[in-house]
Amino acid sequence: MKPIKVLLVDDHAVLRDGLRSILQMEPDIVVVGEAENGEEAIRQAEQLQPNVVLMDLCLPGIDGIEATRRVKLVCPGAAVIILTMHDDDALLFSAIRERAAGYLLKTLPSAEVVRAVRATARGESLVHPAMARKLIEGFANLSRARDAQPGAAPAADGNELTPREKDVLELLVKGESNREIAQHLYLSDKTVKQHMTKILRKLGVRSRSQAIIRAVRSGLVK
């Protein structure tokens, strides 16, 4: 199995050194490059084609949001994990719109960072529970404003979800990855992915983050 290629993007060398030390201890992860600003991140992403990019939000020059957008253009297969010091950072809402795959606090234990890299490399998205509620509240407010506009289509309410799909959705809202959901419910990874596809379709959304917002807003989970 090929190792997961990671690009580190942060303007603080000490933090990059710490992340590199953590990740290089893992046999299935290799740090292929580092960047201290957005412009350099875009260049390296195009050249190195990493599987995962750990992206700081606050960068000199091009910020993490614009860098994420442009990294996705030059390296479509890369999963971008946003790193931030604060769980209420307003830029996080913009990061979701730019299709970032994960949202982590820089203060998380090293094991959580490794878990996030592996999960997003598998194609999953990951929102740490400490940040999930802030994201949900912010986008729920945006959704209510949008739905209040004349002619807006009614949102799906999830009444078509099966009991098992609701179980999967509840664990998704808690911030669990597909693999953790599978272990919790004694299902295979493949079965969880199938449930997730059906959940997105029934809720009328395109991403896991949108599914979380719709679930909380519709009262499907508490």
Describe this structure in words.
- This protein has 10 helices and 6 strands.
- It is α/β, with parallel strands linked by helices and 222 residues long.
- The protein has a 6-stranded parallel β-sheet, with helices on both faces.
- Strand 1 (4-9), helix 1 (13-23) and strand 2 (29-35) form a beta-alpha-beta unit.
- Helix 2 (38-48) packs parallel to helix 3 (64-74) and helix 7 crosses helix 9.
- The radius of gyration is 18 Å and the shape is globular.
- The model has no long low-confidence stretch (mean pLDDT 81).
Briefly summarize what is shown:
The protein is of the alpha/beta class and 222 residues long. Helices cover 52% and strands 14% of the residues.
Give the helices and strands, then pairings.
Elements: E1 4-9, H1 13-23, E2 29-35, H2 38-48, E3 52-56, H3 64-74, E4 79-84, H4 91-97, E5 102-105, H5 110-121, E6 126-127, H6 129-147, H7 163-173, H8 178-185, H9 189-203, H10 208-217
Parallel strand pairs: 1-2, 1-3, 3-4, 4-5, 5-6
